[in-house]
Amino acid sequence: MLVNQDFISHLINFFVGGLCILNGYFAIKYESLKILSGYNEHSMPYIDKKLLSRFIGTCLINAGCVVIIPNIIAYFIFPDLSFIVGIISYVIFGIIILFMIIVTNKEGKKGGKFTKKE
Fold first, then answer.
1. Between 102 and 32, whose confidence is greater?
2. Where are the domains of the chain?
């Protein structure tokens, strides 16, 4: 084999984490929520788009960092533990994404935390 299998798995982890961080950055900077949350301006005019985009962007950036940072540490410092670190980081990644989805669905309804203050 030409390439080490650990290197490929770390490359995939960096790719997934990088995509999450980029999506979070774009959600905060450009308030692009259509893909991420099913947000629709016509059916949800009461939602404060800026607040919702900050929440979703922060969650995505945190999830991306949870995947990237432990894998960098595992790759350079503890290469023997990289498989365990990868599993743990993806479990935490899943918990953060699940938290984001649950809070967005719960608080995105009328009267929730993301509704516009009038």
1. 102
2. 7-107
